[in-house]
Amino acid sequence: MEGIAYHKKPRLKSPYLIVAWPGMGEVAFKAAMYLIDTLKAEEFASIPPADFFYLTDVVVQRGVFELPELPFSKFYFWKNKDTAHDIIIFVSNAQPDLAKAQEYCKEILLLAKAMKVERVVSFAAMPQAIDHTQSPQVWYASSSEQVNTFLKKYNLQLLPEGQVSGLNGLFLGLAKKEGFEGFCLLGEIPLYTIQIENPKASRAVLEVFSAIARIPMDFTELTGQEHLIENQINNLLEYLKVGPAPGPIGEEEIEKIKKSLSQLTRLPSSIKEKIDKLFIQARQDISKANELKSELDKWNVYKEYEDRFLDLFKKKKEKNN
User: Domains in the chain, start-ordered, CATH in brackets?
Assistant: First the structure.
């Protein structure tokens, strides 16, 4: 383990730590990257990728193989002159193997302790039976009743039960275990668009966070992206002859759109890599097939992988015979 590589060590006052990885609708990752760009946050540390990531394929450009770069895991800082809390933003463009997730999170928490972080924050998506033209609500869950009470004044929806999948959720649980306060802001996305980037949900969570942290932000660029994505979805709905609904789209329409989107949209690269790794693990240990099936169902891509999934059991049977 090489540990965290510091490029500089800024002196920060009671910072909030925001963490973000790719996930459904790319809500968290996009929100964090927009925050970095808007604040012109400065990179100050990173986690060497070789400890937690490995190559699984090659990229082809003009017919020539090239090895891709390993995912990045970077820390940025921004000093807020108007409040008692500066900001640290950790962002990675991929999630590591589940087997390495806890060690990976511990590295981030080591920095959080060293920088005397006061509160940790993550963003995530909240799939709901809403129409893509609606303004998404923001839900929240936190590490304690005290934090929930603090968040109530921001007109949010409490998540009474359920789960926050991936590292955008897991990290907060591990942080709580280490004594950190924290909360997650979840932006609503339509059930039928979980594979499509959703800048509208990213803006919704950033609006709430900017109010909490008292950060002035300009959302003009995100708003422009929202209109572009909304137009693309409208065109897709027209192609599918479903058409925009006056209210939440019914389950039958949702299933029809989800089925088509699984063919006409692309999984985030980090999720595709995760699925490929789960296939490798399942070939070695068939008990991993349950986790793999859950991941395929979550992203509504089981049909695309069905033959490959069923082949796992054929090979297992042949091996036993």
Answer: 5-226 (3.40.50.10900), 269-320 (no CATH)
Q: What is the pLDDT of residue 320?
A: 60
User: Which contiguous run of DSSP H or E holds residue 44?
Assistant: strand 42-46
Asked if 181 contacts 147 with a C-beta cutoff of 8 angstroms, the reply is yes
Query: Mean pLDDT per segment of 10 residues, for the chain of length 321 residues?
Result: 83 96 92 94 95 83 84 95 92 89 94 96 92 91 94 92 85 95 95 86 96 92 86 75 56 61 58 82 88 80 84 70 56
Predicted TM-score of the model (pTM): 0.78
The span from the CA of 77 to the CA of 34, in Å, is 14
Q: Are 187 and 27 in contact (CB under 8 A)?
A: yes
DSSP code per residue over 186-234 = EEEEEGGGTTS--HHHHHHHHHHHHHHHT-----HHHHHHHHHHHHHHH
- The C-alpha atoms of residue 163 and residue 151 are separated, in whole angstroms, by 19
User: What is the 3 state secondary structure string of 64-113?
Assistant: EEECCCCCCEEEEEECCCCCCCCEEEEEECCCCCHHHHHHHHHHHHHHHH
Query: Across the strands, what pairs with 17?
Result: 88, 120
Reduced to 3 DSSP states, what percent helix, strand and coil does the chain have, rounded to the nearest 5?
50, 20, 35
Quote the pLDDT of residue 20.
96
Whole-angstrom distance, CA of residue 169 vs CA of residue 124: 8
Distance from C-alpha of 19 to C-alpha of 32, rounded to nearest angstrom: 8
19 in Cβ contact with 90 (< 8 Å): yes
Residue with structure tokens 């039960």? 161
SS3 155: coil
